[in-house]
Amino acid sequence: MPFHVTKFKVELKLAINRLKLLQVKKSSLNLKARREIAPLLEAGKIESATVRVENIIREDLNVEALEMVELYCELLIARVGLVDQSRTVDPGVSEAVHSVIYASSRVDVRELTMLREMLTAKYGKELVLEAMDNSTGLVNAKLVRKLS
Description:
Structural class: mainly alpha
Number of strands: 0
Mean pLDDT: 92
Order of helices and strands: HHHHHHHH
Low-confidence stretches: none
Radius of gyration: 18 Å
Number of helices: 8
């Protein structure tokens, strides 16, 4: 898929909307799961409660990661001119580009995959592979922790 700035902006906006929906969905499911813990503790099912708490914590981290990716998408919309101007990644958007690419393979959002393909066309496969592995260390460290 070739890189077109208008399609890139549209895909970013679609990704933001999808990320917001996922955040709301996961947050409401987490709230429901939190309410189910107290009855488990009262019934003496401590191991079940522990497993559920671990899942809730994992999902909370996932929601926080989605928020971070959403902010990076918004940053890329604001600085789309920097992306469009150069064949190399501008330092002003480097962390955002690398973080979005990194998240695209770890978050189930189709629009992020489309963005990764567009960025592959723009910057080349090598940069995308480096970002997906975080071999250069340019992906936000908090995002890496939250998605691990």
